[in-house]
Design goal:
The complex is a heterodimer of chains A (176) and B (534).
Chain A (H helix, E strand, L loop, with lengths): L2 H33 L7 H26 L13 E8 L2 E5 L2 E3 L3 E8 L4 E6 L5 E7 L5 E6 L4 E7 L11 E8 L1
Parallel strand pairs in A: 1-4, 3-9
Antiparallel strand pairs in A: 1-2, 4-7, 5-6, 5-8, 8-9
Chain B lengths: L23 H39 L9 H32 L8 H23 L22 H29 L11 H8 L2 H4 L15 H30 L7 H12 L2 H21 L7 H13 L17 H16 L1 H15 L8 H23 L5 H4 L3 H31 L6 H27 L14 H30 L17
Helix pairs in contact in B: 1-2, 1-15, 1-17, 2-3, 2-4, 2-9, 2-15, 3-4, 4-7, 7-8, 7-9, 7-10, 9-12, 9-13, 9-15, 10-12, 12-13, 13-15, 13-16, 15-16, 16-17
The chains are: A alpha+beta (176), B mainly alpha (534).
C-alpha cells in the first residue's frame, strides 16, 4: 500500500471512530429518555445549535479543499523529461521506449486507439503509484520521476471489454 | 394483497399530520396507493433476489470457486449493477415515496404517472436482463462510450441497441416518477394561504420554513419529508435528460455504424446522470428517515432553517457535480475538463451539507427521547450510521488529489456497496418492517428473527465491504473478473461474510413468509406506534 493509501485509510478511520463514539452517546441517551419519558430535554437548544454545526462542516470541508485542490493531477508539473509513449488497445499496451533512467523525470504520453483504457502503474513492490486515463483521440500527459530501479507493471484501470483483466504490460524497466 | 382491513388512521399526532382526515375519496386513494406500493415492494424485492445471486456469482468467480469464463462474468456484472442499484434500491425507494407522501397528507393526484413509472421500469429491467444474460452485453452499467460498439465479437450492435433502449425505458420510468412526485407535492395539500402555483412550488421546496411570512400554509408546519422528495424529483428530471440523449445516440449508432459522438462529450452526458442517480436513492431514503425516526422517538423532527437551506443547496449543486467522475480525464489541450474538475470538487463537497444536517437532525430527534426499539427502528438506526460511515468515504472520493490511489479501485466498489446496501438497503429493510404490516393488514414481524436479520446483514455486509475497501486501498482494480493473485486471500475471506449475509436474507424471507401467512389483525392500532408528544 502506498503512503497516500495508508494516510487515507488512517484519516478515514479516525473520523469513523469519532462518529461512532458520538452515535453511541446519542443512542445511550435514550436510556435516560426512557426514564423521563423523553421530556427532560430542551429541543430548542438543538435547533439553535444547528447553524453552528453547519458552519463547522463548511470549515472542515474548506480546510480539506484548500489543502488538496492544488494537488489535483491536472495541476501537477507535467513538464518535459524522458518521453514514453503509452498506447492502449484491446487488450494490450504498446510502450515505447520500454525502459527509462531512475531519478530523471519521465513524461508519459498516454492514449488509446479503440475504447477508454487507463494506465495503472505498479512499482516493484506491487504498489499503485500512478493512474492515467487513456482516451481515444486524445493524449494525456503525466510526468513522474522514478526513485527506485526495477521492473514496473502496467495494468488496465478502465473497463475495456471481456479481456480487460488480461491487459497487463509486465516489464517496464527503470534502470540505474 | 387485497385483504380488506380498516383504513389506517392518520399517523398520530405529528404537527404535519394534524388535519389529515380520511374522507371517503381519500380512503379510496389510500386503497389504490396501498396496492400500488405493495406491487412495487414485491417487484423490487424480486429484483434484489436476482441481483443478489448475480453479485454472489461475481465474487465466487473472483475467488475461483466457480468458473465464469470469457465475457460471462462481465455480462453478469452489468446485470448485477443495474439490477441492484436501479431495479432494487432505486425502484423500491421510488415506490415507498408514494406511501411516505400519502402518510404526510399528499395523496397521489393521478395514478397515470406512477403506473407509467412502474411498467416502464419493469419492461426496461427485463430488457436489460435479456440483453446481458442472454445477449451477452457486458459493457458494465456505465458502458463507457464507445465500448458498447467495440465488443470484440462478444455481442452485436443490435444487442447494444436493444440494451440502450431498455436502459432508456428505465430512464423514462425515472422521468415519469419525477413528474408524478412534482405533480403530487405541488398540490393543494400544502394549503397555501394564497393558493397560487408560485406559493405551492415555494412551499414544496421548503420556502415556508425559510420565509414563513411570505409562504404561509394553513397546515401550520410543513412536512419535512416532502423536501428531499421534491428536490430529488426536480433534479432527477433534469439530470436524466442528458443520459437519455446519450442512449438515443447509441440507439442511432447501433442502426447506423457511420454515426458516432465525441468520447469526452459522451462521458459528460453519462455522468451528468450517473452521479445524481445516487440521490434518486438517497433523497427518498432521507424522506423515509424524516418520516419514521420521529415516530419512534416520539417527537417531531428536530430541524430548523439550516436543514431547509441544505436542501436548497442540494437542489442547486446536485446538477453540477458530475465531473468528479471524470477527474482523470484531463487530456492535453482540453482546459474544459480541468476547469470542470476544479469547480466540481467544491460543489461535490457542498452536497455533504444535506447529509450532515440530516444526520444532525435525526440525532437531535433521538437525543434523550423515549425511543421505541424494534426491528424497524434498529434497521433505521443501522442505516443512518452507515450513512455517516459511507458519507465520509464520499468526501474522500470527491477529492481529486486522491485519485492516483483510488480511481477505479475496489475502494470505490466498497464505497458504493456501503452506501447503497448498508445505508439505503438497511433503510429499505427498516421501511419494510415498519410499513408492511399496515400495508398488508398482517400482524407484526417476529422481532427476534428481525434482530437476527439485522445482525447477520450488518456483520456480513460490513465484513465483505471492508475486504473490498482494503483491497482497493492496496491497489486492487475494479471490474476485473480475475484479480491479481496478491488479492486472493481477502477475496476468499469476503466469501465467509457473504455467506453470513445470505443466511440473514433467508431468515428475512422466512420472517416475511410467516408474517404474510398470518391472519389480518383486527385492531389497526397495532401498527400505530407510540403516541407522539407535542
Amino acid at each position: 500500500m502506498t503512503s497516500l493509501g495508508m494516510g487515507i485509510g488512517i484519516g478515514y478511520m479516525i473520523f469513523v471512530v469519532l462518529g461512532l463514539i458520538i452515535t453511541a452517546v446519542v443512542l445511550y441517551s435514550t436510556k435516560r429518555g426512557r426514564r423521563d419519558k423523553g421530556e427532560g430535554v430542551d429541543i430548542g437548544k438543538a435547533e439553535r445549535a444547528e447553524p453552528w454545526w453547519a458552519l463547522f462542516i463548511v470549515i472542515l470541508l474548506g480546510v480539506l479543499l484548500a489543502f488538496t485542490i492544488w494537488r489535483a493531477p491536472w495541476f501537477q508539473d507535467n513538464g518535459p523529461g524522458q518521453r514514453v509513449q503509452v498506447t492502449g488497445i484491446q487488450f494490450g499496451w504498446a510502450v515505447q521506449p520500454t525502459s527509462v533512467k531512475v531519478n530523471q523525470p519521465v513524461q508519459f504520453n498516454v492514449t488509446a486507439l479503440d475504447v477508454n483504457h487507463a494506465m495503472g502503474l505498479f512499482d516493484p513492490q506491487g504498489r499503485l503509484i500512478m493512474n492515467v486515463q487513456a482516451v481515444p483521440d486524445y493524449t494525456t500527459t503525466r510526468t513522474h520521476t522514478f526513485t527506485e530501479p526495477g521492473t514496473y507493471i502496467i495494468r488496465c484501470f478502465e473497463f475495456c471489454g471481456y479481456q480487460h483483466h488480461k491487459m497487463i504490460y509486465p516489464a517496464f524497466k527503470v534502470t540505474a | 394483497m387485497t385483504t380488506a382491513h380498516p383504513p389506517v388512521p392518520p399517523a398520530g399526532g405529528l404537527p404535519y399530520d394534524a388535519d389529515f382526515a380520511l374522507d371517503p375519496p381519500l380512503a379510496l386513494t389510500q386503497t389504490r396507493t396501498r396496492r400500488l406500493v405493495l406491487r412495487w415492494i414485491w417487484t423490487s424485492t424480486a429484483f434484489l433476489g436476482i441481483a443478489g445471486v448475480l453479485g454472489l456469482l461475481l465474487r465466487l468467480g473472483q475467488a475461483e470457486f466457480i468458473s465464469l469464463d470469457g465475457n460471462l462474468w462481465y455480462a453478469i456484472m452489468t446485470a448485477h449493477g443495474l439490477g441492484a442499484f436501479i431495479a432494487w434500491a432505486g425502484f423500491f425507494l421510488m415506490g415507498i415515496s408514494w406511501w411516505v407522501l400519502f402518510k404526510c397528507g399528499f395523496p397521489i393526484r393521478s395514478f397515470i404517472l406512477p403506473e407509467l413509472t412502474y411498467w416502464t421500469m419493469v419492461i426496461g429491467v427485463l430488457g436489460i436482463v435479456v440483453t446481458t444474460l442472454l445477449g451477452g452485453f457486458g459493457g458494465s452499467w456505465v458502458f463507457l462510450y464507445p465500448l458498447a460498439f467495440n465488443s470484440s465479437g462478444q455481442w452485436s450492435d443490435l444487442v447494444t441497441g436493444v440494451f440502450s433502449a431498455s436502459v432508456l425505458l428505465a430512464g423514462v420510468s425515472i422521468l415519469a416518477y419525477c413528474a408524478g412526485v412534482l405533480h403530487t407535492v405541488i398540490s393543494p395539500a400544502l394549503k397555501a394561504e394564497k393558493d397560487t402555483l408560485g406559493q405551492r412550488i415555494g412551499l414544496a421546496f421548503g420556502f415556508g420554513l425559510l420565509w414563513p411570512s411570505r409562504f404561509k400554509t394553513k397546515r401550520g408546519v410543513e412536512p419535512y419529508p416532502v423536501l428531499p422528495l421534491a428536490v430529488n424529483a426536480l433534479d432527477m428530471f433534469l439530470a436524466t435528460l442528458p443520459f437519455a440523449l446519450l442512449l438515443v445516440f447509441q440507439i442511432i449508432q447501433s442502426a447506423d455504424s457511420g454515426f458516432s459522438i465525441n468520447t469526452l462529450l459522451a462521458g459528460n452526458l453519462l455522468w451528468a446522470f450517473g452521479h445524481p442517480v445516487v440521490y434518486l436513492l438517497l433523497f427518498p431514503a432521507a424522506a423515509t428517515y424524516y418520516y419514521l425516526i420521529p415516530r419512534y422517538a416520539g417527537r417531531p423532527l428536530v430541524a430548523g432553517r439550516a436543514v431547509a437551506v441544505s436542501w436548497l443547496i442540494a437542489l442547486t449543486f446536485n446538477l453540477f457535480v458530475w465531473a468528479h467522475h471524470l477527474y482523470m480525464n484531463y487530456p492535453d489541450g482540453n482546459d474544459v475538463q480541468e476547469t470542470l474538475g476544479t469547480i466540481m470538487q467544491p460543489t461535490t463537497y457542498a452536497l455533504v451539507l444535506p447529509s450532515a444536517m440530516s444526520l444532525f437532525s435525526l440525532a437531535a430527534t433521538i437525543w434523550r427521547s423515549d425511543f421505541q426499539w424494534n426491528a424497524a427502528s434498529k434497521f433505521l438506526i443501522a442505516g443512518a450510521i452507515s450513512w455517516l460511515v459511507a458519507g465520509l468515504q464520499g468526501i474522500i472520493n470527491a477529492t481529486s488529489a486522491f485519485q492516483d490511489t483510488l480511481h477505479n479501485t475496489l475502494w470505490v466498489v466498497g464505497h458504493f456497496h456501503n452506501m447503497a446496501f448498508l445505508n439505503m438497503g438497511l433503510l429499505i429493510f427498516g421501511a419494510m418492517y415498519a410499513f408492511l404490516p399496515e400495508l398488508t393488514g398482517r400482524p407484526h414481524f417476529n422481532e427476534r428473527l428481525g434482530s437476527w436479520h439485522l445482525w447477520g446483514t450488518v456483520i456480513g455486509a460490513y465484513g465483505w465491504v471492508v475486504c473490498q475497501m482494503w483491497q482497493g486501498l492496496d491497489g486492487a482494480p475494479r471490474r476485473w473478473s480475475r484479480l491479481p493473485e496478491t488479492y486472493m486471500d481477502l477475496t476468499r475471506l469476503s466469501l465467509v461474510f457473504l455467506a453470513i449475509l445470505v443466511i440473514a436474507q433467508i431468515i428475512f424471507l422466512v420472517n416475511l413468509y410467516t408474517t404474510l401467512r398470518r391472519s389480518p389483525f383486527d385492531d389497526p392500532s397495532v401498527r400505530q406506534g407510540p403516541e407522539v408528544k407535542q
